Amino acid sequence: MSTNMINLLHTGGSGDSGYRDPAISPDGPTTTEPLPPEIAERNAALVEEFADSLYDAPADAILAWAHEHAPGPVAVTLSMENTVLAELAERHLPGADFLFLDTEYHFPETLDVAAEVEQRYPEHRLVRATAVLSRAEQDKVYGPNLFLREPSACCRMRKVEPLAVHMSPYVGWVTGLRRADGPTRAEAPALSLDNTGRLKISPLVTWSLEDTEAFERDENLIIHPLTRQGYPSIGCATCTMPVAEGEDPRAGRWAFANKTECGLHE
């Protein structure tokens, strides 16, 4: 254990536990570097001009727009729940980086899908974004099972902050948001700005779960096996449960807490 780690264990503790307050992130980068002003201005102008016309546009049109108009590289974020975005990016965003948040809490099947994606789409670099602390280090600093005690803090340190740090080279990101995934996403735009002024592009917003599964089948895509075993929405293994037929697809996410989003899309 490093000296820095030992210091973390004994400073800023939460209550009498001796562990660090989970509201305080570990030392290290947590934010995205600002965009150059001219790129931020261009992004804002693009959203102003095109957001309405792209709101219900098909996925291929949205990605073709991104390829033509984005003023720099965009990252395609992949949860590995499905590989639809990887396939569409292969067709419409040649050479775009794939960005995967490796929380160290994933199902083994999710990691298997990531490895298959890396093999199937070799022209796209797979960037694996990890947290400042390993899973074991987080347990030592913040206490075991932070995901149960403070799930939002765990998501912040293992998802939100790693995404923010790894987004710095890009002018925007492509997400797999679908409006059909639940009430918190029911009016998600296809094109918007995130809180750093980067383009947030969501080509699948009009798709249903059935549309996704049909595309996977018709295009012979890599299938995450748990999506056929009652897991329509897949996150970390510690925080994802199967759902009943007809239930909200995200009902199995953080079922032990009053929480439906990890913070990436809030």
Can you put this structure into words, describing what you see?
It is a single chain. By secondary structure, the chain is of the alpha/beta class. It has helices spanning 3-9, 37-54, 59-69, 84-92, 108-120, 135-142, 146-149, 151-166, 209-218; strands spanning 74-77, 97-101, 126-129, 172-174, 191-193, 199-201. It has one domain (3-239): 3-Layer(aba) Sandwich (Rossmann fold), CATH 3.40.50. Helix 1 (3-9) packs across helix 6.
Give the tags.
266 residues, single chain, alpha/beta, 36% helix, 9 helices, 6-stranded mixed sheet, Rossmann fold
CATH superfamily: HUPs
- The low-confidence runs, each spanning 5 or more residues with pLDDT under 50, are 1-15
The CATH architecture can be given as: 3-Layer(aba) Sandwich
Helices and strands, in order, run as: HHHEHEHEHHHEEEH
Domain tally: 1
Shape: globular
Task: Please work out how many helical segments DSSP would assign.
Answer: 9
Main beta sheet strand tally, sense and closure: 6 strands, mixed
Do you know the CATH topology?
Rossmann fold
What helical percentage do the residues reach? 25-40%
Number of strands: 6
CA(first)-CA(last) distance: 35 Å
Nearest-integer average pLDDT: 89
What Rg is obtained from the alpha carbons, in whole angstroms? 19 Å
Strand order of the largest sheet: 3-2-1-4-6-5
SS content category: alpha/beta
Instruction: Assign the CATH class.
Output: Alpha Beta
Strand content: 5-15%
Binding site for [4Fe-4S] cluster: 154-155, 236, 239
Organism: Corynebacterium glaucum
Active site: 262 (nucleophile)
Catalytic activity: [thioredoxin]-disulfide + sulfite + AMP + 2 H(+) = adenosine 5'-phosphosulfate + [thioredoxin]-dithiol
